[in-house]
Amino acid sequence: MKIKLLLATLGAILLSGCQSDDERPTLVVQRFFGECGAVYGKSIDVGKAETECGIVTTMLNRFAAENPDINVKVNIVAWPGYAQLSAQIAAGDPPDLVTMHQSVISDYQARSLLEPLDEMLADAGITTEMLTPAGQRGTIKDGRLYALPWDTIGRLWHINTALMAEAGLMRNGKPLLPRNPEELIDHARKFKAATGKPYLVQAQVAAPDYLVANLYTYLLAQNAVVFPDARHIRLNTPEARKIVGLYRTLNEEKLTTVAQDFPSATANFVNGGGGIFPTGTWMIGPYEEAARSGTSALKGYAVAPFPQLWGQSAAFVDGHGWVVPKDDRSSAERKAIVRFLSFLARYNSDWTRTGHLPAFNAVLSSSSFTQQPHRRDIATMAATGQQLPGFVQRQSAIQGLIGEELEAAVSGVKPIDRALADAERRVNELLSQI
Amino acid sequence: MTTAAHNNRLPLTALFGVLLGAAIMVAPLVWTLLLSLKSNSELMRDSSAAFSAPYTLENYRAILVGSDVPRWLLNSIIVSLGTTAAVLMLCSLAGYGFARLDFPFRRTLFVFVLLGLAIPEQAVILPRHQLFATLGWHNSYPGLILPGLAAPFGVFFMTQYFRAIPKDLDEAAMLDGASRLDVFWRILLPLTLPAQATLGVFTFLGSWNDYWWPLISATTSDKYTLTVGLAAAQMNYAQTSGLGFLMAQAVFASIPILIVYIIFQKQIVQAMAGAAVR
């Protein structure tokens, strides 16, 4: 009897996996950003949602509620989800819409795995001119739009204004930022003498993206050609040596925290362990909250784009986008995708509560964006923000290789010349294998 | 106190060493548990807040409420139990065959099976993925269970165990009129229960903890196993702004394994000791 009962239960479980017939077009939306069903599982009020996960979950709930004629299936994937996406494409069963970092689009677009979206976006009422310059640069490849840009993410200087005031580095309520490398060192020494703390809080351990963002930003500022073509990088240059040399000096003089990873650097900054933490747009919310709560050692807070130390103002940025992997789709399914793209554009303003910059010019100039804390101070990045050239593939792997060498260079383990030469050689080897 | 009990007592230095070793082993587990009981915002400021109240079950609530965790748990149970049952059945049959039956190319075939031990999963994962895609087995229970059934270690292990059982038992049973199936089913198989338990526990643990194959084979949320599902549930920068949730996930995922360990503790220890002696 027990065995029969067990078999019946198992049978029921297995049959529960069978799908019922549904004549509605199905839209499989695949995203990262995590799972937060406990708080937002049934929420459709996008305006009240917070955090990346909360906002995207609520948006998808709302889209499903507003479009009962579309069968919306949501796949939440382990960040960043590209192993699963590649497996799905290889198996001939890709999702319909996928969140993708703009720096990754080239990897799939170069292999003709993504749909160009110009027509679908036009049908959704979205033209290229409506997108911010950074959004356009991140999603246009070979003259065609391969994603709906969703935001621009980049590094900012998160500033402890209370400590800056203690060091005499505030003017008219605004932090006084350096205008060249020498001034940066000068400010850093002054800050340390006044507060006894390092000027910069930096995540220099197990954070290759952090070091590389500094390097790329200031190479872009000097108009350096980092990738002369799709198969080569140029790193062992006077421009790069100046940048790495600056960060090495900061380390040597202990004007920065050393040997910290991202979580410990974050905690250190919130606990008033240093003046400036150059990290991502996504940390504006948590730091603002910590400063406002009055319970942390972060007694005053401001943000600014990276200061202009060389050449022109520049910012190395990335962004999230929504791509459509190539697949055979019916007219109804394509219309469902168009409706979803149009819906996404409508809610781009809400997404900026994550700290990221909007992908639409209209949102950038809207009060819903500018009235959020510190957003006016960083809005320029939507124009100045630059990605690597669109033909550069394997950007994440390249970051890893360069980051290792930079870590060795700024910590003094390797001479700067050798580290940059090694980084150049290793990246070129990688690119030659594509 | 008896003399035997007195002789079994550990010297003080050894006792101290064992306690120190145990403390080192337990410390990260306790640290994980304490972190899981703290709010994420508090931990973002200072992870040593784990050592002081207040504690909360909020992170566990976030895992259990409104998510697909029950479904992923069920999937993991089905896949792990299915794999374990099938591996035990196949390895017992194969082990009996190699140990007791005489057939052409037996030795060659056995060596061929053992060669499987030398082939890492990464070497075959691409063709296997393509094969399963062609057969339409991805996002299905068979797709998750079948790859685990290729168990050369299990075949080797059971073969050795069957070989260690005296053949006299088979001959005596056959003289009494038992068929080969009777000998296998009624005489030999019950004698291999300790080996079955060991193999079963290791297979279950391996299948439960598997991440790579389920990640690329089960690509729809409703077919995720617990390991893949929990990874998908993590937000970006979980180590910074979601540390408590991350640790609660680790604790939650290890509970079933802990239960298995408690139930089969004796067999696991025996297996470890046996491996050490060999």
Describe the protein in words:
The complex is a heterodimer of chains A (434) and B (278). Chain A has 434 residues and is an alpha+beta fold. In chain A, the strands form four sheets. Chain A has a five-stranded mixed sheet, sandwiched between helices. In chain A, strands 7, 10, 11, 12 and 14 form a five-stranded mixed sheet that branches. Chain A starts with a helix and ends with a helix. Helix content of chain A is 46%, strand content 13%. Chain A has helices at 2-16, 37-40, 52-66, 82-90, 105-109, 118-123, 133-139, 161-166, 181-195, 208-221, 238-252, 262-270, 284-293, 331-346, 348-351, 361-364, 367-370, 375-378, 381-384, 395-410, 416-432, and strands spanning 26-31, 71-76, 97-101, 140-141, 144-145, 148-149, 153-160, 170-171, 174-175, 276-280, 301-305, 315-318, 320-323, 385-386. Chain A contains 21 helices and 14 strands. Chain A is globular, with a radius of gyration of 24 Å. Chain A has two domains: 23-152 and 319-378, Periplasmic binding protein-like II (D-Maltodextrin-Binding Protein, domain 2, 3-Layer(aba) Sandwich), CATH 3.40.190; 154-317 and 393-432, D-Maltodextrin-Binding Protein, domain 2. The model of chain A has no long low-confidence stretch (mean pLDDT 93). With 278 residues, chain B is an all-alpha fold. Chain B has two domains: 3-60, no CATH class; 67-233, MetI-like (MetI-like fold, Orthogonal Bundle), CATH 1.10.3720.10. Chain B contains 17 helices and no strands. The longest helix of chain B has 32 residues, at 69-100. In chain B, 33% of the residues are buried. The mean pLDDT of chain B is 89. Chains A and B meet through helix 1, helix 2, strand 2, helix 4 and helix 12 of A and helix 3, helix 4, helix 7, helix 13 and helix 14 of B.
